[in-house]
Write a structure and sequence with these properties.
Number of helices of chain A: 13
Order of helices and strands of chain B: HHEHHEHHHHHHHHEHEHEEEHHHHH
Helix content of chain A: under 10%
Helix content of chain B: 40-55%
Shape of chain B: globular
Largest interface: A-B, 103 and 105 residues
Shape of chain A: globular
Distance between the termini of chain B: 96 Å
Structural class of chain A: mainly beta
Strand content of chain A: over 45%
Number of strands of chain B: 7
Oligomer: heterodimer
CATH class of the domain at 105-230 in chain A: Mainly Beta
Largest sheet of chain A: 22 strands, antiparallel, barrel
CATH architecture of the domain at 105-230 in chain A: Beta Complex
Chain lengths: 1031, 497
């Protein structure tokens, strides 16, 4: 196979073509709307393979073939134009402005394609749209901008990624993340190392026709990021500065005051006493005298905190202290970003240089993401037949982020009765150290969160991650004859991540042992060598494009980590200073791919398009027997509006139907050596090195294959409306499945290719240029996606997967549990529906009735459980409006997600009573009491037995005002006087408003595809002020 | 030039494809292939060392209650009458909220812990004899330790997942699945079989170990040697009510290990070199229960203030019950370590405290237990005088009032003495179960809902088979015994008659 492909490459390389003479053709291009010259239009003789670009006066001169009959003229922002050649020597061409951008080119797999002719499914997101979001990680900005792409921004940690799934969840145990391609080559670095302002566009490739050339890594879709290039003949300098402020998009639930918390605690104790058989009066009395003991420490002047009915005995002003944990930890802190770039074109060389600085401090006290980045992108056509280019970026970043899940848990549930600083009840003052600073209280005597103080950890400990990254794409491009090119690209993605961990030797739980330091270095080197041979020619009405390619990819990750403890005195943080070795370890792993691929494209008269692609990948992740995988696609489209019978229908600008089918792969298993039977090392018995069994061998393990079908219609009407509607059907087969084994065998499971899953759905996108004139422009975009996920084949009848149960015909994320039946108004207990079984006439056990029960053990067996609904939304998408008027620009985007369930344990943990842990305001108002018998939540009780039910399963429909931008560009007349070509000031807000039931509970609706919470640090609301200047 | 460049590139492309299978063959650096382990005695020794790691640390997870044997011991302690868990780790066990249930984490965590270990041991037992060359005694000692470890693992399992032998064996009740060969991808889950099958296997393995370890001088006190095997045999025979053998094996251990002195008793139970320790877990800076000692039982005992001047971190979870403390005589050396926490009415205990560098060892078996095993076995055989002598030997040493009882009263005294001597050492729950006593929970306790007394022989003394085993094992069904394979779980009053 491989040899044959090489044979073809060599033959084509060595072949010679003969071509005829050329004659010069000149002309002027102007805009049809105002007659001004069109600069930078490409004038192409497709038959001869020659082209020219119009100058500042709209003039061009192209060497047309002797036999050529037409020239093809393209320019961004204008409709394409075919100029029929006559005997004239100089032509006047007027181009029609293109409000809908129908003829735009876009970046596709290993090349460029035209939107109108593309047979596959892809969305282009341009820099103007990305710039509207103030994010330090560009993946977050994708939300709502592309149909079919579900972005969940579930983390407010600066620099963190959004969770992206394209067209559903195609895998069960392997990865569901898309492949990232940066400047034409698969990317193996951190996305947050790419400054969003360096990005020209992002293309989301969604179907097999678009992605098959990425073979074994393409099954979950591909996101192609293209960075900026120099375009302007006159060099320009752009500067952008912004200053922003963040807060939580959905604030955490309010903290109860000490008095409110005392009432909640009293209620929990009272209910416990009632259960223990006390009378109402005794239960209240006993609860009242035990509240103080329950708290262990508190700010009340005595142990008499509430009366026998739970009413506070002290006023808020009587308290010794008030602990505002949230106020001290979560603060509005600035986000600053400065970017400057210098770009242009000089003769045959175009260049783009940029530098950026970002300081994103987030909200939590020590959280931050800082980045210094730079890029240089230079291409030069040093000979008629030779072009070289180099695009190199570097980024240095610091991530300081101790606000992990447990910190958020702490912040949610730390009651206000526990002091942040050491409080001395005898003196009535806070303790101070020799320098007069407050001392943090680790709360060894607290009933909850004993021994921990997140502020102290932030102040004394270190959790810093430094990252240094270099990425480069260097190519050489040879034009043998017009239309026949060879391009060889060497790419490198390199990073080193350094972790600096330190636990204080003076304070906290390691103070007794002199503190500890843990350090690690992880290094990743990925090299890709890509060779592409392309051939594009027009033969009369026939256009042909052929691509042949070879690629080898090699990634090595290696790391070293160690920890030591016992520093002799404060101020020392390096390992060499500590007395005792804790651990030390290192690793080195390799992943390699060798690939050959080709694509064939053909179109006839701009009406009928077909494309076919094929790729074979050899992967080191699989055994030699199962190493080579084959991936392919076929696509076709028909531009009906170019048919004779529609030529005269003026209101149809574009009408295209398209269809594609193909097979792509997914190799995203957790381990790089899944097929090998292994013993893990490092399980040592004191000084005797030990090994333990880690996995069973399976040499037949291979890729997941994803068979993808796409059909769609693209349309553009009345010069105003454009859009598309697509139906997709993704069927994954040979799923990489960790097939569970009986745990008594000593293995929890073995990786096998068993099981199929299907995702199918519909996507819709419409752009509407409501008003479009020189003074006022109004554009509207709406996109919507609906998809369903169905397991079509399983290795066994059913599999339990946490709160889900997998069965054929069901979604992967369909919750499985007991049916909750509300609170019993009589006693405030939880009630569940219990199925009553009886034997029918055929002797089968069937449900004949269901009855209420308060006893969880009645309803925990599998036959008492049922499907409770899926976390996958019914519909999601974005709705954007953009206005431009007299130098002002204004836009807003709403992101919506309708349906889908959320299992909210962030909430449930705060409406059940737990000693020493904070309560949600709902715990006081929405729980059952004698006076509130119809409450939706059961009575507060000390650790009532729970079973998984839909009690805390909520419809997670939400709408978010994702972005609002207001900008003003100063008039050119004014700016020309000071030699500034553009100056824009702007203010933008992200996530300013959130609507939906989750927000009312103090839970951010964006949690996870699985619909589960986990005390995540929620996404932020940002307000940003900025200025953009171009010289 | 143009042609030259392109030919060079085409040639380079060709060259890379020549050795593409080599290019695509990569291997891990932190793992080794399963075939390369049992090619030498050193390899077998490494696999055995891995087994020891699993025994002591489990998979080294980030929980205090999944750290191997020590975590099971703590669970057994907190289930009993004497320790109070004041929130934090083991609250679930202490309150009897249903940790025995098959769908609750604990049942499946313990199950997998023992069976992962057994699978590793089975490889050692199956493949060590196939190694060519090497010194035979080295291989024998490896095999002997592996047999002992497997017997220990099955003994732990059967005590966890079935009623006591005296109750269950006559009813021919189910055991736990027996695997004596390493599992492969074709291995199907095995049925529960009979409790007697499991004990036959335990005795057979201990018998092999006894033969193979004769003459073995261990280098570390955390390893199985002949004395540990004899101690295990004493425990197994006690469980099986074979009193004569239980006493005989206890004597064999007592012949080699002296009782814990009072000085040693108050030292913190953190040093495996203590002369009375037969078997224990060694801890050093690199091999510990979390580098910070977080998952070590030492950090659970509420005694940081009294013992370590507040320097060492404690979760402040474990206290002692007032009724239990009242069992001690005032002059008893062991009673000198209690401190009343007035606000609660609980007692702190200084029995266990860590070394300043957090490398305190943990005791698994010591001579004093053997003496009490012997006392119990003798009393059960109505040899009251000899039994009382054993008991009073310990009481004299500790400064406690001597016993003059006989018959059942003497057995009660011996049981109380076990609690007083061995509290915190992992016996409480299995002792209640073996002696078919109820859980009383009298006096001051900190129970949340559910922590009610449990009658003797309640099914609450027995874990259910984990749900994930039932789902994935075609030979174990979810129907409740005696109709099916699953143990009942119901009200605490659900008792095996």
């Amino acid at each position: 196979m491989k040899r044959i492909i090489f044979g073809i490459i060599l033959t084509v390389l060595c072949a010679q073509f003969a071509f005829g003479q050329t004659i010069p053709v000149t002309g002027t291009i102007v805009s049809s709307s105002d007659g001004t010259p069109v600069v930078g239009a490409t004038v192409q003789d497709r038959a001869a393979g020659t082209f020219a670009i119009s100058d500042e006066n709209g003039r061009f001169k192209v060497n047309a073939g002797e036999k050529s009959t037409s020239l093809y003229i393209m320019c961004l922002g204008f409709r394409d134009y075919t100029l029929t050649l006559s005997s004239a020597k100089d032509y006047k061409v007027s181009l029609e402005p293109d409000a809908l951008m129908l003829d735009e080119t876009m970046v596709i797999a290993y090349g460029q394609g035209k939107k109108t002719s593309f047979t596959g499914s892809a969305t282009v997101v341009k820099k103007e749209e990305l710039e509207k979001i103030s994010t330090s990680n560009v993946t977050q900005a994708l939300q709502g901008l592309s149909a079919g792409v579900q972005v969940i921004n579930n983390s407010g940690q600066p620099g963190s990624s959004g969770s992206i799934t394209i067209r559903g969840i195609g895998s069960m145990n392997a990865s569901s993340s898309p492949l990232y391609v940066v400047d034409g080559v698969a990317y193996s670095g951190y996305i947050n190392a790419i400054a969003p302002t360096d990005i020209e566009s992002m293309t989301v490739l969604k179907d097999a026709s678009a992605t098959a050339l990425y073979g074994s890594r393409a099954a979950n879709g591909v996101i192609v990021i293209t960075t900026k290039k120099g375009q302007n003949e006159n060099g320009k300098v752009s500067f952008r500065a912004s200053l922003g402020f963040a807060s939580l998009a959905v604030p955490l639930p309010d903290v109860l005051t000490p008095n409110e918390y005392a009432q909640g605690t009293w209620r929990g104790l009272y209910n416990q006493n009632i259960d223990a058989g006390y009378s109402v009066a005794d239960a209240g009395e006993l609860a009242a005298i035990t509240v103080g003991n329950e708290f262990k420490v508190h700010p009340f002047p005595s142990q008499n905190i509430v009366d026998a009915t739970g009413k506070p005995l002290y006023g808020d002003n009587d308290l010794l202290y008030y602990a505002d944990w949230r106020g001290e930890t979560l603060k509005v802190r600035p986000r600053q970003e400065y970017n400057i770039d210098f770009s242009g074109k000089s003769g045959k060389t175009s260049y783009f240089f940029s530098a950026g600085y970002l300081e994103d401090k987030g909200i939590f006290t020590t959280q931050q993401f800082n980045r210094i980045s730079g890029r240089s992108n230079v291409t030069s056509k040093i000979k008629d037949w030779l072009e070289i280019g180099t695009n190199t970026s570097f980024a240095h970043s610091l991530t300081d982020a101790p606000a992990g899940d447990s910190v958020v848990w702490f912040l949610r549930t730390m009651p206000s009765i526990y002091s942040i600083y050491q409080y001395n009840a005898e003196t009535g003052t806070y303790n101070k150290d020799a320098k007069g600073n407050y001392l943090y209280d680790y709360g060894l005597d607290r009933a909850g969160w004993s021994g921990w103080n997140v502020l102290a950890d932030a102040a004394y400990n270190s959790y810093k991650t430094y990252s240094d990254q270099i990425s480069t794409r260097d190519y050489i491009d040879i034009t043998f004859i017009p239309g026949l090119n060879f391009r060889s690209t060497i790419s490198l993605d390199y990073y080193i991540t350094k972790y600096d961990g330190y636990s204080s030797s003076e304070y906290g739980f390691l103070a007794g042992t002199g503190g500890a330091a843990s350090k690690s270095y992880d290094r990743s080197v990925s090299t890709t060598w890509t060779n592409l041979l392309t051939f594009n020619r027009q033969f009369g009405d026939h256009n042909v494009g052929v691509l042949l390619g070879h690629e080898s990819y090699s990634r090595t990750v290696a790391g070293l980590s160690a920890g030591r403890k016992g520093f002799p005195f404060a101020g020392l943080v390096e390992l060499s200073s500590a007395a005792v070795a804790d651990y030390s370890t290192s690793y080195s792993d390799n992943y390699r791919l060798l690939s050959f691929f080709s694509r064939f494209e053909y179109d006839y008269k701009d009406k009928y398009y077909v494309s076919a692609s094929f790729r074979t990948d050899g992967s080191s992740r699989f055994s030699p027997e199962a190493r080579w995988g084959y991936f392919w696609s076929l696509g076709a489209s028909w531009r009906i509006n170019n048919e004779e019978f529609l030529k005269d229908v003026s209101w149809i600008d574009n009408l295209k139907i398209k269809a594609s089918y193909g097979a792509v792969g997914n190799d995203g298993l957790s381990s790089w050596y899944c097929y090998q039977g292994l013993y893990s090392t490092g399980y040592n018995d004191m000084n005797n090195a030990g090994v333990v069994i880690s996995r069973l061998p399976n040499t037949t393990l291979k890729w997941e294959t994803n068979l993808q079908m796409n059909v769609g219609v693209d349309f553009a009407l009345f010069r105003k409306i454009s859009g598309g509607i697509e139906y997709f059907d993704r069927r994954s087969k040979d799923l990489l499945f960790t097939m569970p084994m009986a745990p008594s065998t000593g293995f929890s499971g073995i990786d096998r290719n068993i099981g199929d899953v299907k995702n199918y759905g519909i996507e819709f996108n419409i752009d509407y240029a409501v008003i479009n004139n020189d003074k006022f422009q109004w554009n509207m975009n709406l996109n919507a996606t609906h998809y369903q996920n169905v397991i079509t084949k399983l290795p066994q009848k059913e599999m339990n997967a946490g709160v889900f149960k997998w069965m054929e015909g069901q979604s992967r994320y369909n919750f499985w549990g007991t049916k909750y039946a509300g609170v019993n108004p009589a006693n405030g207990n939880d009630q569940y529906w219990m199925n009553v079984y009886a034997q029918n006439s055929e002797g089968e056990s069937v449900i004949v009735d269901r009855i209420l029960t308060e006893n969880t053990s009645d309803v925990t067996s599998e036959d008492q459980k049922q499907y409770l609904g899926s976390s996958i939304p019914d519909l999601f998408g974005g709705y954007t409006n953009t206005f431009k008027f007299y130098g002002f620009d204004f836009s807003f985007m709403l992101y919506y997600s309708i349906g889908g369930l959320l299992y909210d344990t962030d909430y449930s943990q705060m409406v059940t009573y737990r000693q020493g842990f904070g309560l949600h305001p709902d715990a006081l108002t929405e729980t059952w009491t004698e006076d509130n018998p119809d409450a939706k939540l059961p009575r507060l009780n000390k650790n009532a037995l729970e079973t998984f039910s839909d009690k805390y399963l909520y419809d997670n429909t939400f709408v978010r005002l994702r972005n609002v931008t207001l900008g003003y560009s100063l008039p050119k007349k004014v700016l020309n006087k000071v030699n500034i070509s553009q100056l824009r000031v702007f203010v933008q807000g992200d996530n300013l408003m959130t609507f939906g039931t989750a927000a009312k509970r103090g839970t951010d609706p964006e949690q996870s595809v699985a619909g589960t919470t986990g005390n995540r640090f929620p996404t932020t609301k940002n307000v940003t002020f900025g200025v953009q200047v171009t010289f | 030039m143009k042609k030259f460049l392109s030919i060079i590139m085409a040639a380079a492309v060709l060259l890379t494809s020549v050795s593409c299978e080599d290019f695509l063959s990569t291997n891990p650096t932190s793992s080794v292939s399963d075939q390369s382990v049992f090619t030498s005695t050193q390899g077998a020794q490494a696999a055995l060392s891995g087994c020891y790691y699993l025994l002591f640390f489990g998979w080294g997870g980030d929980r205090a209650d999944t750290q191997g044997y020590i975590s099971h011991m703590m669970s057994n302690e907190t289930c009993g009458d004497d320790i109070i868990v004041d929130g934090g780790w083991y609250t679930y066990d202490y309150n009897h909220w249903g940790h025995q249930r098959g769908d609750i984490f604990k049942s499946s965590a313990l199950w997998s812990y023992y069976y992962d270990l057994i699978n590793n041991i089975n490889s050692v037992i199956a493949y060590t004899p196939t190694i060519e060359g090497g010194i035979q005694s080295d291989k024998d000692y490896i095999m002997g330790q592996a047999y002992a470890m497997r017997a220990w693992a099955y003994f732990q399992l059967i005590q966890t997942y079935q009623h006591t032998y005296a109750l269950a064996a006559p009813k021919d009740m189910p055991g736990v699945p027996l695997y004596i060969e390493p599992s492969s991808d074709k291995t199907e889950g095995k049925p529960r079989g009979k409790i007697t099958d499991v004990y036959d296997q335990i005795l057979s393995d201990l018998g092999n170990a006894e033969k193979l370890l004769d003459g073995f001088v261990r280098t570390q006190k955390n390893h199985f040697d002949l004395s540990v095997v004899q101690g295990l045999l004493s425990r197994v025979y006690l469980e099986m009510n074979n009193w004569a053998e239980a006493a005989r094996y206890a004597d064999l251990v007592l012949a080699k290990y002296p009782l814990t002195t009072n000085e040693q008793w108050t030292y913190g139970f953190n040093d495996a070199s203590t002369s009375s320790w037969v078997w224990g877990q060694l801890i050093d800076a690199e091999h510990n229960l979390d580098a910070n000692g977080d998952y070590s039982p030492f950090s659970l005992w509420s005694n940081y203030i009294t013992r370590n001047g507040g320097d060492l971190w404690s979760f402040n979870c474990f206290f002692l019950n007032d009724k239990f403390v009242a069992l001690f005589d005032a002059d008893d050396i062991r009673a000198k370590q209690f401190h009343l926490v007035a606000a609660k009415g609980y007692y702190m205990s200084d029995k266990f405290y860590d070394t300043p560098d957090l490398t305190g060892d943990h005791v698994f078996m010591r001579a004093d237990e053997m003496l009490l095993n012997k006392a119990e076995a003798l009393a059960k055989q109505s040899k009251d005088t000899e039994a009382r002598d054993c008991l009073n030997q310990l009481r004299t040493l500790r400064g406690a009032t001597l016993s003059s009882k006989s018959g059942n009263a003497l057995l009660d005294d011996i049981y109380v003495e076990r609690r007083k001597e061995l509290y915190g050492e992992g016996f409480a729950w299995f002792d209640l179960r073996r002696e078919q006593r109820p859980l009383l929970r009298e006096g001051k306790h900190n129970e949340f809902s559910g922590g009610k007394p449990i009658p003797a022989n309640s099914w609450r003394f027995v874990y259910q088979i984990p749900t994930n085993e039932i789902i994935n094992n075609p030979n174990i069904n979810s129907d409740i015994w005696p109709n099916g394979d699953q143990n009942p779980f119901g009200e605490p009053s659900l008792v095996l008659e």
